[in-house]
Amino acid sequence: MFRAHILSIVLFTPLVGVFVLLMVPKENKNAIRWIANLFALAGFLVSLPLVPWFWAMKNEATPYFKFAEGSANNWIPSIGAGYQLGIDGISFLLIMLTTLLGAISILSSWTAIENRVKEYYAWFLVLQTGMLGVFMANDFFLFFVFWEAMLVPMYLLIGIWGGPRKLYAAIKFFLYTLAGSVLMLLGILFLYFHHHLITGVYTFSIEALYTTAPLITGKAAILLFFAFFIGFAIKVPMFPFHTWLPDAHVEAPTAGSVILAGVLLKMGTYGLIRFSLPFFPAVATIKWVQGLLITLSLIGIIYGALVSLVQKDMKKLVAYSSVSHLGFCTLGIFVFNSMGIAGSVIQQINHGISTGALFLIVGILYERRHTREISEYGGISTVMPIYATISLIMFMSSMGLPLLNGFVGEFPIMMATFMVSKAWAIWAVPGVVLAAAYLLWLYQRVFFGTITNPKNEKLLDLSPREIATFVPLVALAVIIGVFPQPLFKILDQPVNHLAGIIDTHRPGYVAPVVNAEQAVPAKPAVQVPPEVKAPQKPAEKKIVEPAKALTTANLHQTAHKS
Question: How many alpha carbons fall within 13 Å on the CB side of residue 242?
């Protein structure tokens, strides 16, 4: 029973915490903190059984989405909306990241939030449920409900508990994201009615739409692709849709910045992988479209790094570094091979770990000194040695030092990019160098030298609670850096599957053959229920399984040798 409904249990555990909090008097702040932390921790603990269970199922071809719950059209039958949950290797990793960072973020808020404590923790738990729902939903209507539901909690977390310009930052975040959501909603409705036109069935089932969305051609397909792309690119955020991010990060409370950088931004990259590419592979592989996507990614990498170099505010520096690092994630996606996509997903996980830790690092200093100005610090490693050591590890992780997690994500992305275009790889290299420059320069100015500001002479080192927030992040940074192979194995099936779909829609694609007389048997792109399959047309080309010369298996050997 527990295993059959594990996704629903993980999804709604934080929401149960919200209802418990509603029964606690708002004056009892300590009880509220304990309850919120217990339910956040419970949300992480109930997700842990997914690790061995998913590992055992990782290579099973059917069903494609594991731990599936619900069915099509069982929620609102009149419009074809269903409560459908399911995960593959990509969403599995993002769910585990979400439950971990959610627990860490709430624990980091213990002393930082003093006003309207009950509301703060309640909205944070609602946000946790919304994010998990996005990664689990297998129905487009349900996906959109969760996508929009997480907007309100994040808006309130910034607008109520943020910094001096919190209202400006909150409204800017909300309007940007809402504009992208409107475009995406129009695209969803088009796919919904297009599916009915072909099959006679009204449904929002994502697996069903996988069979009919690629049949859209011409200008309609291009417009739909960019409707989804803009919605997800704003969330990433990609250049030039990034301007809301620094304001939101700077004004958000520390825990809000951690969850925003660690999880919310990954909803954009997840959408690109889950919807934009498999729905419209023929559009994505058009030469000018791919060139545009790669160009925007490269601009984001270099621009984010250059702007980080000139920042005087530590939090703004880390915020712009996110623009640069996520440029690598989108670059890996848009080179359209399995190695690049796998590297992108792993880099997304690594960014959540490393940048989440960086925002915690900045937040700890801000709690003690109430300033984030770099010039206010210097030499604090002498009074905060534990803090300085953890900061150094996470700075090295963020810049991609070998044997730490950042390297494991960046290396396959760069290698996959180089295999497709040497020019693209060359343009991406400055982002790696500049990341080391702005992070090392920040560390040197804050931690090295002598203490020149008397206010820093009596700073307290990390408390046991603060150390507890860093321990899992440091451990993961080292473990992933030293032994990344399990992550690649988990991602083998979904990324090779997606790369195969893209390959079959490349211009001039020719089906691989076993010999001169025999072709490779055709296989469906996605396993779908018989009642929602599109009928075969006489002139329709069969989708065949491509030869996968470039797969994450290549990377297993490279990682093992390193």
Answer: 24
CA angle 27, 29, 35 (to 5 degrees): 125
Give the model's confidence band at 200: pLDDT under 50 very low, under 70 low, under 90 confident, else very high: confident
- Tens-digit pLDDT profile for residues 389-447: 999 999 999 988 889 998 998 999 999 999 998 999 999 999 999 999 999 999 999 99
Does a structural domain hold residue 236? yes
Residue 445 and residue 230: Cα distance in Å, rounded? 38
Residue in the block written with tokens 């921790």: 41
Report whether pLDDT(1) > 90.
no
Q: For residue 178, give its domain range.
A: 163-500
Residue 109, in any domain of the structure: no
pTM of the model: 0.86
Number of H helices, E strands in the chain: 24, 2
Six-digit token string for 104: 């860490």
Orientation of helix 50-57 relative to helix 485-504, angle to 10°:
50
3-state secondary structure 450-482: CCCCHHHCCCCCCCHHHHHHHHHHHHHHHHHHH
What is the amino acid identity at position 492?
D
pLDDT score of 509 = 57
Residue 369: CB atoms within 10 Å:
16
Residue 387 forms part of a structural domain:
yes
For 208-258, give the DSSP string.
HHHHHGGG--HHHHHHHHHHHHHHHHHHTTPTTS-THHHHHHHHS-HHHHH
Q: What is the pLDDT of residue 280?
A: 92
In a domain, 156, yes or no: no
